[in-house]
Amino acid sequence: MRHAFRGPRWNGQPEDTSVCGTRTGMVAEPSEEDWVRAPSCAACNTALHAARGTEV
Ligand SMILES: [Zn+2]
User: What are the pLDDT digits (tens) for 1-56?
Assistant: First the structure.
């Protein structure tokens, strides 16, 4: 599952809390294939769109 995180970039912490509130271990170098295939987290998408004031 691909969660969204606040902030411009990953700061190197081993885990972080995603936009939807999920505590997630960070993978230092996810493979591009894993990243592309992983489904986006709907809760994160909704939260990001809500923050921007845009429709999902
Ligand atoms: Zn999420």
Answer: 888 888 777 778 888 899 999 998 877 677 878 767 888 899 999 998 998 898 76
- Hey, what long-range contacts does 42-47 have (CB within 8 A, 24 or more apart)? 43/19, 44/2, 44/3, 44/4, 44/18, 44/19, 44/20, 45/4, 47/4, 47/19, 47/20
**7 Cα to the center of ligand 1, angstroms:** 15
Domain ranges of the chain: 1-56
Report how far ligand 1's centroid is from the alpha carbon of 27 (Å): 15
